[in-house]
Amino acid sequence: MYDVVIVGACTAGTYFAGLLAKRGLKVLVIDRDTEESLAKRLDIIHFTRDSFKEFGVEPSGEGDEEFVRDFHVCYGKSALNNHLKTNYINVAVLHLPLFIKRLRKTAVEAGAQFRFRTAFQELRYENGRIAGIITTEREEIPARLVVDASGISAVVRRTIDDPYMESFETGPRDRFYVLLKYVKLKDPCISVVDSTSWPYYKGWIAPQHTPGGAIIGVGANLSFDYARKCMAKFEAAIPLPEYELQYEEMACTPYRRPPFSFVTDGFLVIGDAACLTKPINGEGIPSAWVQCTPAADVVAEAMKDGGYPTKEKLWEINRIYQTGEGAAYAGERAMLIGAVNMTEADNDYLYKKGIVFKSDDEPEVENLLGALIQGVLSGAFSLKALISLASSTQKGEALKKHYQAYPDTPNGYPVWEKKALKLWKKVGSMADTVKDA
Ligand SMILES: Cc1cc2nc3c(=O)[nH]c(=O)nc-3n(C[C@H](O)[C@H](O)[C@H](O)COP(=O)(O)OP(=O)(O)OC[C@H]3O[C@@H](n4cnc5c(N)ncnc54)[C@H](O)[C@@H]3O)c2cc1C
Question: What's the number of CA atoms in the CB half-sphere (13 Å) around residue 139?
């Protein structure tokens, strides 16, 4: 009998297993893939170097097999390529499968167990309560807590029929289909050492591991075909350095609001299975860890002395996340829908004035509405864009406030959920802004 069984052995499940094992829990992580093929769908990932310290992960550096390089500046450019924003941030470039291998080593050292080629089939119940899982081989694995870390497919969460757990599928309107081109630049004098993004096209160019190489990426709702169309539009609009294609990667990331509750009796959902990604750039690894770190303490407390982790005992996981990162990301996600729903010229004006998109050394625009109205009067910003941005900002603020008032116990949840649903309905989805699919 395990205390906890975690379904999914990538960045969320493996990290969380290490945290729980360190707190003395008996943890098993299963994954349907083999150890060798795990996470092979993606090679290079980038994330902020501060995350290592913040989440207690030993920093990767020179000499570590997963480490590629660091960079220190992220540039953002406007749709017409006229304005540049500069943000200083230390970013680590790593090989994902090798990084997961290192996370696994830490988790194993703490006492967590891993089993590969083992796939989740269904939940196991005792006296009507979740009490472990059953694999596709019909093996029963009893556990007091089941954690879904199965990524965007959320294979466990989607089987649950419970008013405190949403079983939605993350469909084409709720995903970003990401197309990555690994390229070798033709001009040996050009090297891509920092990342530059063009949020209007949801496109970017960033460093990779081979000398003279770069990654050109685009993310789009609906399908890989549409992402390819967006890539063509991006490359036609923005003069990128000439290149030879090495190979392509295609994968999906969730782009929707997370479930309103991550817990119910005997169950917790984390990572991509809980749609925890950063709205502005899709970064998912640290977003999941923001939830995992306090969750480990709450789980350890809920399960001490052999106790069953009821939703009441686990509720603090919801409250901590939703009132913090959850509130900030809900507001940002809503606002971004309005911020991208405009013309190239409108987007250029936002960059020019440092509205939404600004450099670290630029002051916040004090009178936002005034600056937008001035743009409309001068003909540089359309009235339609002003209405779109003002309305999405207002909806984002309302959502943020609502998340900050997340209920302290499950008792307040049904009323909170009802209002949250209404607010999100008004916000709509990023997919609503697609006009040329
Ligand atoms: C193209 C692309 C580039 C990205 N780049 C970055 C980046 O640079 N930085 C960043 O922070 N984030 C990035 N992300 C997001 C990041 O990759 C994800 O947020 C993160 O990998 C999610 O981790 P996870 O552990 O939640 O899920 P996953 O990595 O999806 O892992 C889920 C695991 O569950 C297993 N599983 C599924 N079903 C079952 C089953 N039935 N039984 C057993 N096991 C099962 C799978 O085999 C898999 O190993 C990117 C995403 C994409 C698509």
Answer: 11
The rounded Å distance from CA 151 to ligand 1 centre is 5
- What are the structure tokens assigned to 113, written together? 């167990």
Closest Cα to atom 19 of ligand 1:
284
**Percentage, residues of the chain above pLDDT 70:** 100
> Could you tell me the strand order of the sheet in which 243-254 lies?
44-48, 84-95, 67-77, 195-198, 203-206, 213-220, 175-185, 243-254
Both structure tokens of 284: 């998912």
Query: For tokens 């996600």, what's the residue?
Result: 333
Instruction: Calculate the alpha carbon distances from 437 to 222, 285, 334, 346, 432 in Å.
Output: 8, 29, 22, 21, 11
Cβ pair 257, 166 in contact under 8 A: no
Which tokens hold the place of 276?
């925890």
Query: Count of residues for the chain?
Result: 437
Among 11, 116, 209, which is best to mutate for testing ligand 1, by the most ligand atoms less than 8 A from CB? 11
Q: Which domains does the chain have, with CATH numbers?
A: 2-71+92-170+256-322 (3.50.50.60), 173-254 (3.30.9.10), 330-432 (no CATH)
- 43 near 249, Cβ under 8 Å? yes
Task: Identify whether the C-beta of residue 83 lies closer than 8 Å to the C-beta of residue 41.
Answer: no
Closest C-alpha residue for ligand 1 atom 42 = 119
Average pLDDT over every residue of 358-382:
93
Quick: pLDDT tens for 156-208: 999 999 999 999 999 999 999 999 999 999 999 998 999 999 999 999 999 88
Cβ atoms 180, 216 nearer than 8 A: yes
